[in-house]
């Protein structure tokens, strides 16, 4: 994942990117807890999420919880299977999320916890 460059930071400053902090271990080793990422909330206005995209989404069964996961598969009727990169099943539970709950595509790492 690329580190935020001047263009990404400019887009964040003019509110075309949103900043999120990672919690948990589901995206390790790519992202660790306390990393911060920039997200394009408009990424899916004209195109559907693609397999391999890293996205921010609302959790399908826990109101108020947002998750960061990778699009692993597309299911029938616009639902996406989201999974973390961590191979440890205790750290990574897949979620089937309708497209309406996907908030945007992660574009870069803003700040690293390490």
Structure characteristics:
single chain; 114 residues; mainly beta; 37% strand; globular
Q: Can you describe what's shown?
A:
This protein has 1 helix and 7 strands; from the N terminus they run H-E-E-E-E-E-E-E. The model has no long low-confidence stretch (mean pLDDT 93). The chain is globular. A hairpin with a 4-residue loop joins strand 4 (66-74) and strand 5. Helices cover 7% and strands 37% of the residues. The protein has a 7-stranded antiparallel β-sheet, with helices on one face. The two termini are 15 Å apart. It has 114 residues and is mainly beta.
Quick take:
Helix content is 7%, strand content 37%. It has one helix at 6-13; strands at residues 18-21, 36-40, 54-58, 66-74, 79-83, 95-98, 102-111. A hairpin with a 7-residue loop joins strand 3 and strand 4.
């Amino acid at each position: 994942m690329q580190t935020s460059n001047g263009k990404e930071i400019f887009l964040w400053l003019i509110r075309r990117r949103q900043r999120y902090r990672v919690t948990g271990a589901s995206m390790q080793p790519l992202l660790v807890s306390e990393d911060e990422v920039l997200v394009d909330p408009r990424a899916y206005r004209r195109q559907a999420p693609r397999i391999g995209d890293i996205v921010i989404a609302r959790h399908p069964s826990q109101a108020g919880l947002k998750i960061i996961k990778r699009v692993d598969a597309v299911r029938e009727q616009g639902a996406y299977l989201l999974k973390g990169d961590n191979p440890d099943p205790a750290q990574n539970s897949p979620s089937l999320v309708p497209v309406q709950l996907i908030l945007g595509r992660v574009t870069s790492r803003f700040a690293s916890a390490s």
